[in-house]
Design a protein that fits this description.
The chain is built from 10 helices and 11 strands. About 40% of the residues lie in helices and about 20% in strands.
């Protein structure tokens, strides 16, 4: 006699079980994307202007750079902006690797490069078609001073003690015209270009040195200033820390060189970025080495 076929009892699929199956499938699909972490970078600079003004100046460019890098690397990129309180701290944060890349003045770059020779220039800010722009020696608009030679016996405001044009190039320019520390009645380092402009405009100092973009900004805002001399200097380089992965550095360089947005560049107060290398800053090295001339007796 044939035994009846035994049918296995199947466990009913409940709504809860269906939910678990769907969740497991979703995790399997999304796991590769979730496991891929975003690229988080820290960008450093120092306060050559008021800290909030530095953020307003740089954040639009960094936002564009984030988008360009994300597209190039096919991964989300975020860039945090860190403003150091002074030039020395800004250099130290790059040399130590606490920031991934930084915007430095030429003299600060030279100092950092001496401390960490493997630092690499990613790009330099462009003024017109060049990476050279001017520093300005200015006086109060109503001043009778018309040239550098007439600064003998007057007071002078410099920027930071580590500033390229706010100190080194400005002091070399004065020395070349026969004005040295002993020729001046008094001089002082005011740390920031905006402070130099305000001090000269208010009559606290007879003259001062600052970058031409800051000079133009202050004059446009109503500061009573007049230029009596201009001197060339190299623009600020954007520099990668030692050990930054090559593909990240290349993406930063390409992203900067591709920035064309008028609003972002207007905030930056430059016209874009250009390729640059360490050799472009030899003139800055020379001005630092020649700085002793400002502190010697006048040549004539």
């Amino acid at each position: 006699m044939q035994r009846p076929t035994m049918l296995r009892h199947r466990r009913p699929i409940t709504a809860a079980r269906l939910l678990l199956i769907a969740a497991a499938s979703l995790v399997a699909v999304l796991l590769p994307a979730a496991a891929r972490a975003d690229i988080g970078l820290v960008f450093g600079t120092y306060a050559s202007d008021k800290p909030f003004a530095m953020v307003e100046q740089l954040r639009p460019t960094l936002d564009l750079l984030e988008r360009a890098m994300s597209e190039r690397l096919s991964e989300p990129v975020t860039i945090k902006l860190r403003v150091a309180r002074d030039y020395e701290t800004g250099v130290a944060e790059l040399v130590s690797g606490r920031v991934d890349f930084a915007r430095l003045g030429a003299a600060s770059y030279v100092t950092a490069k001496d401390e960490a020779p493997e630092l690499a220039v990613l790009a330099a800010e462009r003024y017109g078609k060049s990476i050279v722009f001017n520093g300005i020696i200015c006086v109060k608009a109503e001043s009778t001073i018309s040239n550098i030679a007439e600064l003998a016996g007057k007071s002078f405001a410099f920027g930071d003690e580590q500033s390229t044009l706010g100190r080194y190039i400005a002091q070399l320019t004065l020395a070349n015209a026969g004005i040295t520390a002993t020729s001046l009645k008094d001089f002082k380092y005011l740390e920031r270009h905006d402070r130099v402009a305000a001090a000269v405009a208010s009559g606290q100092f007879d003259a001062g040195a600052l970058e031409e973009t800051m000079f133009a900004k202050m004059v446009a805002s109503g500061a009573g200033l007049r230029a009596i001399a201009a001197f060339p200097t190299v623009t600020k380089p954007w520099v990668a820390r030692v050990g930054l992965p090559a593909r990240i550095g290349e993406a930063i360089s390409n992203g900067l060189l591709g920035i064309r947005d008028p609003a972002a560049l207007a905030a930056l107060r430059f016209d874009g970025f250009a390729a640059a290398e360490d050799g472009d800053y030899e003139v800055t090295r020379a001005s630092i080495k020649e700085n002793w001339r400002f502190f010697s007796n006048p040549a004539f």
